[in-house]
Amino acid sequence: xxxxxxxxxxxxxxxxxxxxxxxxxxxxxxxxxxxxxxxxxxxxxxxxxxxxxxxxxxxxxxxxxxxxxxxxxxxxxxxxxxxxxxxxxxxxxxxxxxxxxxxxxxxxxxxxxxxxxxxxxxx
Length: 123
What we know:
- The chain is α+β, with helices and mostly antiparallel strands.
- It is built from 2 helices and 5 strands; from the N terminus they run αβββαββ.
- It has helices spanning about 5-20, 75-90; strands at about 25-35, 35-45, 50-60, 100-105, 115-120.
- The chain has a 5-stranded mixed sheet with strand order 1-2-3-4-5, with helices on both faces.
- The longest helix is centred in the first third of the chain and has 20 residues, at about 5-20.
- The radius of gyration is 14 Å and the shape is globular.
- GO terms for molecular function: nucleic acid binding.
């Protein structure tokens, strides 16, 4: 991954965390990894566990590679579901309501947020 993509991704994930916390969510994990992949954010709202896939794009790349939210394709959705199942097993959380959200962020060249969309129950 290029340095610029990492930079854009870290800005997007930080903004997603910030807005989730402001919205009353509790962050349980960020960048949770195992050998199958990574969960960007795991949050809690009430009793519900929310698995959040964060997708960030630079404003300059808008239109060339599709939107951030379009990049959460069926393959990625399957991967996030499998990782969520493993997370729940390892943290002994059984029979809790869950949800899968997508947060799509567009970032300007000066690192400010151009667009922020939170899709609850996206898949």
